[in-house]
Amino acid sequence: MKNLFLKQLSFAITGVVLTLTACNGGSTNSSSTDSTTVHTDTLSGDTLAGGPDQVKPMGPAPEWGPGIKPQMHAVIEKLASYKDKPIPELTAVEARKNHTPTDAVMGLMKENHIPMPVFNVDTAGKEIPVTGGNIHLRIYTPKTGNGPFPVIVYYHGGGFVIANIDVYDASAKVLADKVGAVVVSVAYRLAPEHKFPTAHNDSFAAYQWVVKNAASIKGDPKMIAVAGESAGGNLALNMAIMARDKGIAVPKHILAVYPVAGSDMNTPSYVKNAAAKPLDKPMMMWFVKNYLNNMAEGKDPRINLIAANLKRLPSTTVITAEYDPLQSEGLMLADKLRAAGVTVDNKNYDGVTHEFFGMGALVPEAIAAETYAVDQLKKAFSK
């Protein structure tokens, strides 16, 4: 692909940047502040602007990803350069201090003088009660217009164990800014301090709060969608299922980005991508051991979504990545949803890894996926 095309593509959506760390760390989830927290690789006051076409890897493609895209490869290299201990060798508390793919993107932006995006949104925090405590919500509201706006309830990734709403701040901002929606990002409690099904129950409490209080945050209670990445993709699907089963307002749409959707770690993509980065098979095993009370719970349909009752769910968008252990179960989930009569649209993106979705500042495939997700949400809200 020519450099000029890459540069034009990379700035096609301003602000589609960084988000993801569904599987590679971040600080704890208990913060009730509403400012982004990342490691120290942030942009300096450099005035020479660069572009993602100049971001290139230093070494050969990894054995597990022979067709990895150059910018994606550079992010993986940068992440490895921090020399953090592998997450499966750490406690959950230690793992939350590891660098994330977001940190790697930020580092590359600094090195290549790529400016930070500007998002046309305001943020505010809200504490809500849940069984056994409170959780924090971060609410992103478009600065343009008075509403009522459609609402997206967003669930971050991290295997139910690591990462937080700070790490995923840009993802929520992209959806709020580009869809023109209020986004409510949910800081559900993490394992192993809070075992299954705490994250699921916290997430549903947040969804119920939004349904009841949408008008108070400039939202339209009849125009609510759910979205999430990795573990958050699992939670987004579960919110629609729980809403259906409990007789409350079902969301208009589900956006599931490489969701945790199965319990079989011997699928074709698990075999092919067992050593992929930033998510590999040992890390997924570590997440499961930390979140579940016992391994038998892996068969619970809230975890093993491909075995759940998927009938009468809203239209759903599923995004998957080539170099991702979760690719097979994401594709299988899309097929199972169709078989259950659900309207499904899904796309797989080649040459990229788990976590690519929010990397639009550097990775052209991420811009394509983000644009696709935004378009799907807009379409659902227009009906």
TrEMBL record:
The keyword Magnesium does not apply. Transmembrane segments: none annotated. Residues 27-44 have a biased composition (Low complexity). The keyword 4Fe-4S does not apply. Residues 152-357 form the Alpha/beta hydrolase fold-3 domain. InterPro entries: AB_hydrolase_3, AB_hydrolase_fold, GDXG_lipolytic_enzyme. One of its GO terms (molecular function) is hydrolase activity. Keywords: Hydrolase, Signal. Residues 1-22 form the signal peptide. Residues 26-64 are annotated as: Disordered. It comes from the Bacteria. This is Acetyl esterase/lipase.
